[in-house]
Amino acid sequence: MELLKQRIIKDGTEIGTEVVKVDSFLNHQLDIGLFMALGKEIYRRFGHLGINKILTIEASGIGIAAVTAIYFDLVPVVFAKKTQPNTMTEEFYGAPVKSFTKGTVSIARVSKKYLNENDKVLIIDDFLAHGEAAMGLASLVEQAGGTVCGIAAIIEKEFQGGSKKLRDAGYLVDSLAVITKVEDGKIYFKD
Ligand code: 5GP
Protein backbone atom coordinates (compact mmCIF):
# COMPACT_ATOMS: atom_id res chain seq x y z
CA MET A 1 0.00 0.00 0.00
CA GLU A 2 1.74 3.12 -1.32
CA LEU A 3 0.44 5.53 1.35
CA LEU A 4 1.84 3.36 4.15
CA LYS A 5 5.12 2.74 2.36
CA GLN A 6 5.65 6.49 1.92
CA ARG A 7 4.84 7.06 5.59
CA ILE A 8 7.39 4.45 6.67
CA ILE A 9 10.00 6.06 4.39
CA LYS A 10 9.17 9.50 5.82
CA ASP A 11 8.83 8.69 9.54
CA GLY A 12 10.25 5.20 10.13
CA THR A 13 13.68 4.66 11.60
CA GLU A 14 15.62 1.43 11.75
CA ILE A 15 17.37 -0.05 14.75
CA GLY A 16 20.17 -2.18 13.32
CA THR A 17 19.00 -4.54 10.57
CA GLU A 18 16.13 -6.25 12.42
CA VAL A 19 13.83 -3.66 13.99
CA VAL A 20 11.82 -0.84 12.44
CA LYS A 21 10.58 1.96 14.67
CA VAL A 22 7.35 3.71 13.72
CA ASP A 23 6.42 5.27 17.05
CA SER A 24 5.19 8.50 15.48
CA PHE A 25 2.14 6.89 13.83
CA LEU A 26 1.70 3.23 14.92
CA ASN A 27 3.44 2.21 18.14
CA HIS A 28 3.26 5.20 20.47
CA GLN A 29 1.44 8.13 18.88
CA LEU A 30 -1.44 6.87 16.70
CA ASP A 31 -2.40 8.52 13.40
CA ILE A 32 -6.12 7.78 13.27
CA GLY A 33 -6.55 9.25 9.78
CA LEU A 34 -3.93 6.80 8.55
CA PHE A 35 -5.56 3.98 10.56
CA MET A 36 -8.84 4.67 8.73
CA ALA A 37 -7.11 4.25 5.37
CA LEU A 38 -5.42 1.06 6.61
CA GLY A 39 -8.71 -0.32 7.95
CA LYS A 40 -10.44 0.37 4.66
CA GLU A 41 -7.66 -1.40 2.78
CA ILE A 42 -7.83 -4.43 5.11
CA TYR A 43 -11.57 -4.58 4.40
CA ARG A 44 -10.89 -4.45 0.65
CA ARG A 45 -8.57 -7.44 0.99
CA PHE A 46 -10.48 -9.56 3.53
CA GLY A 47 -14.06 -8.21 3.43
CA HIS A 48 -15.46 -11.06 1.30
CA LEU A 49 -14.63 -13.80 3.83
CA GLY A 50 -17.63 -13.55 6.17
CA ILE A 51 -15.50 -12.40 9.11
CA ASN A 52 -17.49 -11.89 12.31
CA LYS A 53 -14.69 -11.18 14.82
CA ILE A 54 -11.28 -9.51 14.88
CA LEU A 55 -8.54 -10.82 17.15
CA THR A 56 -5.31 -9.04 18.04
CA ILE A 57 -2.77 -8.93 20.86
CA GLU A 58 -2.04 -6.15 23.34
CA ALA A 59 -0.90 -3.50 23.11
CA SER A 60 -0.04 -2.16 19.66
CA GLY A 61 -2.58 -4.21 17.70
CA ILE A 62 -5.56 -2.82 19.59
CA GLY A 63 -5.84 0.62 17.97
CA ILE A 64 -5.65 -0.58 14.40
CA ALA A 65 -7.97 -3.54 15.11
CA ALA A 66 -10.57 -1.19 16.62
CA VAL A 67 -10.52 1.18 13.66
CA THR A 68 -10.62 -1.72 11.17
CA ALA A 69 -13.75 -3.10 12.87
CA ILE A 70 -15.62 0.01 11.71
CA TYR A 71 -15.22 -1.19 8.11
CA PHE A 72 -16.26 -4.76 9.04
CA ASP A 73 -19.73 -3.67 10.15
CA LEU A 74 -18.60 -3.15 13.77
CA VAL A 75 -17.69 -6.78 14.48
CA PRO A 76 -16.37 -7.36 18.03
CA VAL A 77 -12.65 -6.86 18.60
CA VAL A 78 -10.95 -9.17 21.09
CA PHE A 79 -7.37 -8.69 22.21
CA ALA A 80 -5.25 -11.40 23.79
CA LYS A 81 -3.65 -10.44 27.10
CA LYS A 82 0.00 -11.20 27.72
CA THR A 83 -0.30 -11.50 31.48
CA GLN A 84 -3.04 -12.84 33.71
CA PRO A 85 -4.58 -9.90 35.55
CA ASN A 86 -6.33 -10.42 38.90
CA THR A 87 -9.60 -9.64 37.15
CA MET A 88 -9.25 -12.59 34.76
CA THR A 89 -10.76 -15.20 37.06
CA GLU A 90 -12.65 -17.13 34.37
CA GLU A 91 -11.27 -19.94 32.20
CA PHE A 92 -9.15 -18.90 29.23
CA TYR A 93 -7.52 -20.29 26.11
CA GLY A 94 -3.75 -19.87 26.24
CA ALA A 95 -0.85 -20.14 23.80
CA PRO A 96 2.87 -19.43 24.36
CA VAL A 97 4.22 -16.50 22.34
CA LYS A 98 7.87 -15.50 22.17
CA SER A 99 8.16 -11.72 22.15
CA PHE A 100 10.14 -10.38 19.22
CA THR A 101 11.10 -7.18 21.01
CA LYS A 102 11.82 -8.60 24.49
CA GLY A 103 12.90 -12.18 23.69
CA THR A 104 10.79 -13.53 26.57
CA VAL A 105 7.97 -16.08 26.32
CA SER A 106 4.54 -15.18 27.64
CA ILE A 107 1.16 -16.86 27.48
CA ALA A 108 -1.34 -15.06 25.21
CA ARG A 109 -4.72 -15.46 26.88
CA VAL A 110 -8.32 -14.97 25.80
CA SER A 111 -11.26 -15.73 28.04
CA LYS A 112 -13.38 -18.66 26.84
CA LYS A 113 -16.32 -16.24 26.84
CA TYR A 114 -14.95 -14.31 23.87
CA LEU A 115 -13.99 -17.03 21.36
CA ASN A 116 -16.23 -19.85 20.20
CA GLU A 117 -16.90 -22.33 17.40
CA ASN A 118 -19.06 -19.89 15.41
CA ASP A 119 -16.26 -17.37 15.08
CA LYS A 120 -14.81 -16.56 11.67
CA VAL A 121 -11.80 -14.58 12.73
CA LEU A 122 -9.48 -12.05 11.14
CA ILE A 123 -6.20 -11.81 13.05
CA ILE A 124 -4.58 -8.36 12.91
CA ASP A 125 -1.20 -7.26 14.21
CA ASP A 126 0.97 -4.20 13.76
CA PHE A 127 4.11 -6.11 12.74
CA LEU A 128 4.72 -9.58 11.35
CA ALA A 129 8.28 -10.73 12.02
CA HIS A 130 8.84 -14.42 12.90
CA GLY A 131 5.13 -15.11 13.08
CA GLU A 132 5.10 -16.08 16.76
CA ALA A 133 2.28 -13.74 17.79
CA ALA A 134 0.06 -14.62 14.81
CA MET A 135 0.68 -18.35 15.29
CA GLY A 136 -0.28 -18.07 18.98
CA LEU A 137 -3.45 -16.11 18.13
CA ALA A 138 -4.42 -18.71 15.49
CA SER A 139 -3.99 -21.41 18.12
CA LEU A 140 -6.40 -19.59 20.46
CA VAL A 141 -9.06 -19.43 17.72
CA GLU A 142 -8.62 -23.11 16.92
CA GLN A 143 -8.72 -24.18 20.58
CA ALA A 144 -12.17 -22.54 20.66
CA GLY A 145 -13.25 -24.46 17.53
CA GLY A 146 -13.42 -21.26 15.45
CA THR A 147 -11.99 -20.57 11.99
CA VAL A 148 -9.02 -18.38 11.12
CA CYS A 149 -10.17 -16.65 7.91
CA GLY A 150 -7.03 -14.59 7.49
CA ILE A 151 -4.05 -12.85 9.04
CA ALA A 152 -3.48 -9.16 8.27
CA ALA A 153 -0.26 -7.41 9.23
CA ILE A 154 0.29 -3.71 8.85
CA ILE A 155 4.05 -4.06 8.36
CA GLU A 156 5.67 -7.36 7.44
CA LYS A 157 9.40 -7.92 7.59
CA GLU A 158 9.50 -10.69 5.01
CA PHE A 159 13.14 -11.55 5.69
CA GLN A 160 12.25 -12.81 9.18
CA GLY A 161 10.17 -15.64 7.73
CA GLY A 162 6.87 -15.27 9.61
CA SER A 163 4.62 -15.00 6.57
CA LYS A 164 6.16 -18.09 4.96
CA LYS A 165 5.73 -20.05 8.17
CA LEU A 166 2.07 -19.01 8.45
CA ARG A 167 1.33 -19.72 4.76
CA ASP A 168 3.03 -23.12 5.03
CA ALA A 169 0.66 -23.82 7.94
CA GLY A 170 -2.27 -23.08 5.59
CA TYR A 171 -3.24 -19.55 6.61
CA LEU A 172 -4.16 -16.69 4.28
CA VAL A 173 -1.67 -13.90 5.03
CA ASP A 174 -1.64 -10.39 3.58
CA SER A 175 0.41 -7.40 4.71
CA LEU A 176 -0.08 -3.76 3.79
CA ALA A 177 3.65 -3.01 3.55
CA VAL A 178 6.30 -5.66 3.00
CA ILE A 179 9.91 -4.91 3.95
CA THR A 180 12.49 -7.12 2.26
CA LYS A 181 15.58 -5.91 4.10
CA VAL A 182 17.03 -3.20 6.30
CA GLU A 183 20.61 -2.37 5.37
CA ASP A 184 23.00 0.56 5.78
CA GLY A 185 20.31 2.74 7.30
CA LYS A 186 17.82 2.11 4.46
CA ILE A 187 14.53 0.24 4.46
CA TYR A 188 13.82 -1.77 1.29
CA PHE A 189 10.29 -2.70 0.18
CA LYS A 190 8.76 -5.36 -2.04
CA ASP A 191 7.53 -3.93 -5.42
P1 5GP B 1 6.51 -11.94 15.59
O1 5GP B 1 5.66 -12.56 16.67
O2 5GP B 1 5.88 -12.05 14.22
O3 5GP B 1 7.93 -12.42 15.62
O4 5GP B 1 6.61 -10.40 15.94
C1 5GP B 1 5.46 -9.62 15.92
C2 5GP B 1 5.30 -8.84 17.19
O5 5GP B 1 6.54 -8.28 17.62
C3 5GP B 1 4.35 -7.70 16.95
O6 5GP B 1 3.25 -7.86 17.85
C4 5GP B 1 5.12 -6.44 17.26
O7 5GP B 1 4.58 -5.80 18.38
C5 5GP B 1 6.54 -6.87 17.57
N1 5GP B 1 7.49 -6.47 16.50
C6 5GP B 1 8.13 -7.30 15.64
N2 5GP B 1 8.98 -6.63 14.87
C7 5GP B 1 8.88 -5.33 15.21
C8 5GP B 1 9.51 -4.13 14.73
O8 5GP B 1 10.38 -4.12 13.84
N3 5GP B 1 9.12 -2.97 15.32
C9 5GP B 1 8.18 -2.92 16.30
N4 5GP B 1 7.84 -1.73 16.80
N5 5GP B 1 7.56 -4.04 16.79
C10 5GP B 1 7.91 -5.23 16.24
UniProtKB/TrEMBL annotation:
Pathway assigned to this chain's UniProt record: Purine metabolism; XMP biosynthesis via salvage pathway; XMP from xanthine: step 1/1
Gene3D superfamilies xrefs: 3.40.50.2020
Chemical reaction(s) catalysed: XMP + diphosphate = xanthine + 5-phospho-alpha-D-ribose 1-diphosphate
Primary site of residence: cytoplasm
Residues that coordinate or bind xanthine: N27, K157
Coiled coil regions in record: none
Residues annotated for 5-phospho-alpha-D-ribose 1-diphosphate binding in this entry: A129, H130, G131, E132, A133
Subcellular location: Cytoplasm
InterPro entries named in the record: PRTase-like (IPR029057), PRTase_dom (IPR000836), Pur/Pyrimidine_PRTase (IPR050118), Xanthine_PRibTrfase (IPR010079)
One Pfam assignment: Pribosyltran
EC number: 2.4.2.22
PANTHER family for this protein: HYPOXANTHINE/GUANINE PHOSPHORIBOSYLTRANSFERASE (PTHR43864), XANTHINE PHOSPHORIBOSYLTRANSFERASE (PTHR43864:SF1)
NCBIfam families the UniProt entry points to: PRK09219.1, XPRTase
Quaternary state and interactors: Homodimer.
Protein family: Belongs to the purine/pyrimidine phosphoribosyltransferase family. Xpt subfamily.
Function description: Converts the preformed base xanthine, a product of nucleic acid breakdown, to xanthosine 5'-monophosphate (XMP), so it can be reused for RNA or DNA synthesis.
Protein name as catalogued: Xanthine phosphoribosyltransferase
Organism of provenance: Anaerotignum lactatifermentans
Lineage: Bacteria, Bacillati, Bacillota, Clostridia, Lachnospirales
Gene symbol of the encoding locus: xpt
